[in-house]
From TrEMBL:
<dbReference type="InterPro" id="IPR036615">
    <property type="entry name" value="Mur_ligase_C_dom_sf"/>
</dbReference>
<keyword id="KW-0963">Cytoplasm</keyword>
<comment type="similarity">
    <text>Belongs to the MurCDEF family.</text>
</comment>
<dbReference type="GO" id="GO:0009252">
    <property type="term" value="P:peptidoglycan biosynthetic process"/>
</dbReference>
<dbReference type="GO" id="GO:0008360">
    <property type="term" value="P:regulation of cell shape"/>
</dbReference>
<dbReference type="Pfam" id="PF08245">
    <property type="entry name" value="Mur_ligase_M"/>
</dbReference>
<feature type="binding site">
    <location>
        <begin position="109"/>
        <end position="115"/>
    </location>
    <ligand>
        <name>ATP</name>
    </ligand>
</feature>
<keyword id="KW-0961">Cell wall biogenesis/degradation</keyword>
<dbReference type="InterPro" id="IPR036565">
    <property type="entry name" value="Mur-like_cat_sf"/>
</dbReference>
<keyword id="KW-0067">ATP-binding</keyword>
<keyword id="KW-0132">Cell division</keyword>
<dbReference type="GO" id="GO:0008764">
    <property type="term" value="F:UDP-N-acetylmuramoylalanine-D-glutamate ligase activity"/>
</dbReference>
<dbReference type="GO" id="GO:0051301">
    <property type="term" value="P:cell division"/>
</dbReference>
<dbReference type="GO" id="GO:0071555">
    <property type="term" value="P:cell wall organization"/>
</dbReference>
<keyword id="KW-0547">Nucleotide-binding</keyword>
<dbReference type="InterPro" id="IPR005762">
    <property type="entry name" value="MurD"/>
</dbReference>
<comment type="pathway">
    <text>Cell wall biogenesis; peptidoglycan biosynthesis.</text>
</comment>
Length: 444
């Protein structure tokens, strides 16, 4: 019996283990950290063998295939040893794609991919298609394939997941944008990260589609220098395109094979230019799949976004509290600050991923009246913005940060949590950070 070893027992690892067992493999799960009790319960229920707190190389090196969780870097010794032994190491999305005939929409990008994925799935689901939503959002792709395989999937895909593919091929690939992120995983070389993102199209043929942001110079420069097989459908806020999507005045026009969908940008439920782009990308997918135009328009007018992304929490004493915990890099926070229409108290900080804060200076000068740092080490933020605002304080807990914001906020101000950093110094993940913010606001 062929052996599959799964490294890492989070959402993707446990999903891969369930699928591997279902496909008749001898499965072993190994996690160097502690496995969450909820995932242990699942592994026990399926009678899948596991270990935690170590990687037993004697067992791991017996594998025919190793499925690696996205959080594990390729640079660690164990992965190098597996490569040297010629043992296949792949990601969970690669593994899952081998066991489904579903049509795939793959969405990646430094920012906007969660909103675009959720919105695309919402439109296709409302149109009555048998389509799942998985990957970096909700259930893992592998678990979905194992437990209730669908005719199609909308997948949010990270660069870490794309690093481990060989044959994974979405019929429609979407690249929302590329800005420096996760450089600590790519030898601090932006070009390595760019290549990782573009792996989403590497197995596509001329019968497949690539939807991308034509206003993003990083993407257009790459396309100038690298040939891509798939049919390209750009979207743009600034330039008219014959095929694809563009904005002119307030009108969005989407053209596929000379068939046009036209709607007003101000009718979108999601506000901000970045969301016009997310809507254009999602609507282009829907039009490619021949969804009724009335359905597409209705969905775009009704979809109010995802949790932890510019989420309005409460208004207290005429002060609006906004949860943007999902902003884990500078570019995401740029969009958030850009969308602020009132004086803003900005809660920022966490684990810095090699951030360059300079691109935020103009927006901070224009919109931010006070900065509340929330992190174990805030020195880089204090140094970056010390000259931009008079009021900059450091806090170590969400409760303290929110209480301080409440104390200094005046009528018609915004209080914005948009950290521009990862959350792992004080929180388990960005979701927990966002939930704590909302709880602290509700307790005011």
């Amino acid at each position: 019996m062929e052996k599959v070893v799964v490294l890492g027992a989070g959402e993707s690892g446990v999903g891969a283990a369930i699928l591997a067992q279902q496909q008749g493999y001898d499965v072993f799960v190994s996690d160097k950290g502690q496995i969450a009790s909820s995932y242990k319960d699942v592994l026990t229920k399926y009678e899948i063998e596991w270990e935690e707190g170590e990687h037993s190389t004697s067992r791991i090196f017996e594998a025919n295939t190793v499925v690696k969780s996205p959080g594990i870097p390729d640079q660690i010794t164990l992965i190098k040893e597996l490569n040297a032994k010629g043992i296949e190491v792949i990601s969970e999305i690669e593994f899952a794609s081998r066991y489904t005939t579903a049509s795939l929409v793959g969405i990646t990008g430094s920012n906007g991919k969660t909103t675009t994925t959720a919105l695309t799935h919402y439109i296709l689901d409302q149109a009555g298609l048998n389509v799942g939503c998985a990957g970096n959002i909700g259930d893992s792709f592998a678990k979905s394939v194992a437990l209730q395989d669908k005719e199609g999937y909308v997948l949010e895909v990270s660069s870490f997941q794309l690093d481990g593919i060989t044959s994974f091929k979405p019929h429609i690939a979407v690249l929302t944008n590329i800005t420096p992120d996760h450089l600590d995983r790519y030898d601090y070389k932006f070009e390595n990260y760019i290549k990782a993102k573009f792996r989403i199209v590497e197995n596509q043929t001329k019968d497949d589609y690539f939807i991308y942001d034509k206003d993003d110079k990083v993407i257009t420069d790459y396309l100038k220098n690298n040939k891509i097989e798939s049919t390209q459908l750009p979207f743009s806020l600034h330039e008219k395109v014959d095929e694809g999507a563009y904005l002119d005045n307030d009108t969005i026009t989407i053209t596929i094979n000379n068939d046009k969908l036209i709607m007003s940008a101000s009718a979108l439920a999601l506000k901000g230019n970045h969301n016009v782009k997310n809507a254009m990308a999602a609507a282009t997918v829907a039009q490619l799949l021949k969804i009724r135009k009335a359905t597409i328009r209705e969905c775009l007018e009704n979809f109010h976004g995802v949790e932890h992304r510019l989420e309005s929490v409460l208004k207290i004493n005429n002060v609006q509290y906004i949860n943007d915990s999902k902003a884990t890099n500078v570019n995401a926070t740029y969009y958030a600050l850009d969308a602020m229409k009132a004086p803003t108290i900005w809660i920022v900080g966490g684990v810095d991923k090699g951030n360059n804060y300079a691109e935020l200076f103009a927006l901070v000068n224009e919109k931010v009246k006070a900065i509340i740092c929330l992190g174990v080490d805030n020195s880089k933020i204090v140094n970056a913005f010390g000259n931009c605002v008079d009021d900059i304080v450091e806090t170590q807990s969400m409760k303290d940060a929110v209480n301080y914001a409440y104390k200094i906020a005046e009528r018609n101000d915004n209080v914005l949590l948009s950290p521009a950093c990862a959350s792992f110094d004080l929180f388990k993940n960005y979701e927990e950070r966002g939930r704590q913010f909302k709880e602290a606001v509700r307790e005011l």
